[in-house]
Amino acid sequence: MPAAHETTSDTHIDDDVRAAIADITAHAPDGSRDCEEEDISHLFEPLTRAEVHNCVFSLWYPNFRRETIKSEIIKPLAPEFIDYLLADGIMLPDQDDTPEYSCKIEDPDSSDGEWSEDENDKQDASAFIDIASTSADIRRRIEILGGKVMPRMCWSAPKDASWMAMGNSLECRNPSDIYVLLKSSDKISGDLINGRYLPKEQLGDIEHELVLRQWSNLVPSMEFRCFVKNKKLVAISQIDYEYYEFLENMRDEIQTKLRLFFDEHVRDKFPSDNYCYDAYVAQTVNRVYLIDFEPWTPSVDSCLFEWSELVKADSSSGDGLGLRLFPKGVSAMGHFSGKYSKNRFPVEATDDQFRGSMAELIKSVAAQTRQQQK
Questions:
Q1: Cβ contacts of residue 152 below 8 Å, gap of 6+?
Q2: What value does the mean pLDDT take over residues 221-230?
Q3: Is beta strand 210-214 parallel, antiparallel or unpaired with respect to 223-229?
Q4: For residues 337 and 357, what is the distance between their CA atoms, to the nearest angstrom?
Q5: Average pLDDT taken over every residue of the chain
Q6: How far apart are the C-alpha atoms of 161 and 233, rounded to whole Å?
Q7: Cα(233)–Cα(266) distance, rounded to whole angstroms?
């Protein structure tokens, strides 16, 4: 599942990287270009609590059940389960058919944090987290969804932790698979601790949820991010940083399908005026699937566009900025090993390298795009 780096978001990219991305707008329609140093913060209306809440999965899923992938929502989550997700370490049940399992919270003042099952009876019961009931509920939902699922929570999927799983995939078949991903993900812990898009104090009380989505082996080349301004679809971007020759031949078809999908299924059903959403074009069944929603805010990844283009796009007529595809002759893998590869290493060892690699990548994309325009 693609679903959608959410520091707490796969969408946060530092300003110096975004300055480099601005170079790609050199071939954009007149009136949409920016200088790299222009401050565009004044172009955004303050993000509201309602706009963020509209993107919580359980709030949009009922209205788009027919347009998206079948899912099960576990809500509310037991406080003990939230404690388990935030506890240090990854401790899993020995066997999936043994639901009885407790996780110990280490006492930071203790000189010896080691423990064994033989010592359980000697420990204060309040020092353990019982997740047996949540595990049982997860098993039941996995069975309903056909035996294979992809997990996520209110706003995020643990895509940054896929390297921890077998096959580098978000495919899960039992609670242990899910727990490894959730507990290894900086995105998930960030959402739980800090909230998403807005500071936690501005978000108010959020009832956390675990979402299990029926596993679908989606092809990354057919994922697209759509940008909606004043309830008009103003831009579409390929999400995967890879060139696919067949996409050029399908450009008009893809854009037509995505615009028709927006007109018929999204525009009048999603409550916000300005937002982004990810969609998947399934060629085998000739239909479009809705994957996820995000608010209209500069912390969201604008993919192959610069946000300065998007906020200035004319939403009153035409196709806006159209569909932007990754150009031929540029290899993202030549700049960094993967979108979330830096999550495998300490932040201090990777941040500068990642920012530099991203800047080099976007400069290469821009140069190649200009060459193709000649």
A1: 3, 57, 158, 210, 211, 213
A2: 97
A3: unpaired
A4: 10
A5: 78
A6: 32
A7: 10
pLDDT confidence of residue 93:
61
Q: Of residues 129 and 42, which shows the higher confidence score?
A: 42
DSSP 57-78: HHHHGGGGTTTB--EEEE-SPP
In terms of pTM, does the model score above 0.70? yes
- Residue 66 corresponds to which tokens in the numbers above? 């027919």
Cα distance between residue 12 and residue 24, in whole Å:
18
Q: What is the pLDDT of residues 167-188, one digit of tens each?
A: 788 999 999 999 999 999 999 9
pLDDT, one tens digit per residue, over 108-128 is: 444 444 544 554 444 444 446
Tell me the sheet residues that pair with 276: 227, 294
Residue 325 is which amino acid?
A: L
pLDDT at 190 over 50: yes
The confidence score (pLDDT) of residue 334 equals 52
Q: Report the C-alpha gap between 297 and 192 in whole angstroms.
A: 20
Distance CA 309, CA 312 (A): 5
Contact partners, residue 346, CB within 8 Å, separation at least 6: none
Positive/negative CA dihedral, 149, 207, 49, 197: negative
Identity of the amino acid at 230: N
Residue 299 is encoded by which pair of tokens?
A: 């912390």
pLDDT at 364: 61
Residues in the chain: 374
Please identify which residue in the block is written with the tokens 């404690």.
Answer: 83
Amino acid found at 240: D
Question: Distance (Å, rounded) from C-alpha 10 to C-alpha 301?
Answer: 7
Helix (H) and strand (E) counts in the chain? 12, 10
